[in-house]
Write a sequence for this structure.
């Protein structure tokens, strides 16, 4: 009896897929590395809340590590570290490898835009002596989650004379913050009968920004006037300048450890900065790679990747073509020989909402970085679906480098779905697979990830670009 049991146990160990909690598979030194890595990440979350701020931070980190801005026709050779800043909203960094560029590059693509509330182009109005900003939400949000939380305002205003004003207000403890109001439950009888998509409607997402009227009995819209006067004194802007602005309201709170054991991180915009940060760290730490490494931090993923800073545009292809030409190769040959990790998050299994997942194919917090072969919805529509061969190669690579990883799809069949930039890069004839950190409460103002999974993403990206 005893013997049989151990045979079965042995067989199980040999034949069953290992899906153990990552903490049972690491030693104390690695646990310390995991927690140390999270500290740098939380700082990044707090300083780079928007795509523009993430690019600024990336440029800073890249230049500190010897990367220089790439200009077309620059001579390139092995070991060179370069970056291209795409309009301050997306960035590509590369380390030239020792192998000929025609052997392909190792791409790692994450995105740095996150769901938020964008100001409309004519946002400011006064109603019943309160001043407000009209917003248009960006990305897929549950609108009701964005009320009654402190919001900060980030972005740029291009004035009539062409000068740029940079705005970042609500992050410093001494700054004021803004918020979207909601109905008191006492008077919400009708509101609470609406379906969840309409409890708060798009046009209800108005940002409260002031209430003191300008001191002049003659003036109408005196509160609006007072706000414009404050803005004029602080930024030198007039109302028409909003037309040429990009101002984004994002949660004003900072990233925090979650849990008595501090194993999780709560914060705004884990999607997809929990992949962008590890990808950037891996990029700057990778010296003397064999294949050229190309790390992309993209904009516009949350709205479908269109636009010249999104990955549906040609800027990645142009960059590859430029560096290929500089080294005597054709861009299309480089792309065909290249491999890509689409570094984006997946949904973490939430025990409070188990019904949206199929347990055998869901990603779990603390089981490592998640490899997602396909995304999409309604019968894999819109996915690039990585080949078995490429999935096999990545799996071998992860195991060889002691990366704790799991596989998971985005929810059970027909529960919903979603996509990443994987398809757009795969469409360039690049072998591409999704890999990233599982997230709880994805797209909420306060998302949650596991520190272990974050660190494993970093290990995975580092192993991939160095291979
Ligand atoms: Mn994402
Ligand atoms: Mn997203």
């Amino acid at each position: 009896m005893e013997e049989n049991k151990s045979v079965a146990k042995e067989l199980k160990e040999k034949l069953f897929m290992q899906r153990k909690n990552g903490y049972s598979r690491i030693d104390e030194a690695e646990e310390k590395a995991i927690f140390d890595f999270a500290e740098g990440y939380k700082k990044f979350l707090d300083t780079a809340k928007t795509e523009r701020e993430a690019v600024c931070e990336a440029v800073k980190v890249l230049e500190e590590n010897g990367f220089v801005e790439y200009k077309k026709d620059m001579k390139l050779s092995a070991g060179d570290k370069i970056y291209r800043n795409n309009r301050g909203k997306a960035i590509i960094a590369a380390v030239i490898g020792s192998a000929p560029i025609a052997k392909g590059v190792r791409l790692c693509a994450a995105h740095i835009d996150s769901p938020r509330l964008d100001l409309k182009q004519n946002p400011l109005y006064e109603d019943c002596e309160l001043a407000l900003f009209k917003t248009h939400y960006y990305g897929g949000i549950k609108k009701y989650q964005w009320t009654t939380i402190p919001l900060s305002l980030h972005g740029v205003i291009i004035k009539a004379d062409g000068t740029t004003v940079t705005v970042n207000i609500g992050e410093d403890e001494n700054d004021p913050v803004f918020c979207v109001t909601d109905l008191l439950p006492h008077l919400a009888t009708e509101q609470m009968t609406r379906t969840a998509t309409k409890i708060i409607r798009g046009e209800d997402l108005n940002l409260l920004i002031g209430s003191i009227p300008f001191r002049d009995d003659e003036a109408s819209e005196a509160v609006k006037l007072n706000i414009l006067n404050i803005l004029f004194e602080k930024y030198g802007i007039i109302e028409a300048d909003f037309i040429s602005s990009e101002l984004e309201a994002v949660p004003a709170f900072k990233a925090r450890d979650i849990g008595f054991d501090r194993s999780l991180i709560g914060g705004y915009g884990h999607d997809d900065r929990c992949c962008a940060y590890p990808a950037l760290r891996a990029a700057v730490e990778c010296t003397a790679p064999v294949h050229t490494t190309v790390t992309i931090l993209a904009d516009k993923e949350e709205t479908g990747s269109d636009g010249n800073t999104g990955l549906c545009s040609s800027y990645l292809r142009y960059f590859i073509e430029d560096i290929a030409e500089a080294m005597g190769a054709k861009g299309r040959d480089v792309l065909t020989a290249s491999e890509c990790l689409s570094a984006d998050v997946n949904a973490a299994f939430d025990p409070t909402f188990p019904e949206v997942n199929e347990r055998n194919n869901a990603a779990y917090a603390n089981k490592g970085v998640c490899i997602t072969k396909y995304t999409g919805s309604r019968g894999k529509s819109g996915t690039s679906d990585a080949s078995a061969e490429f999935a096999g190669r990545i799996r071998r690579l992860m195991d060889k480098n002691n990366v704790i990883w799991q596989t998971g799809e985005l929810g059970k069949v027909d529960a919903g779905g979603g996509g990443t930039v994987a398809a757009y890069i795969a469409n360039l004839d690049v072998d591409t697979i999704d890999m990233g950190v599982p997230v709880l409460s994805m797209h909420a103002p306060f998302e949650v990830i596991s520190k272990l999974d974050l660190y494993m993403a970093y290990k995975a990206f580092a192993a991939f670009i160095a291979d």
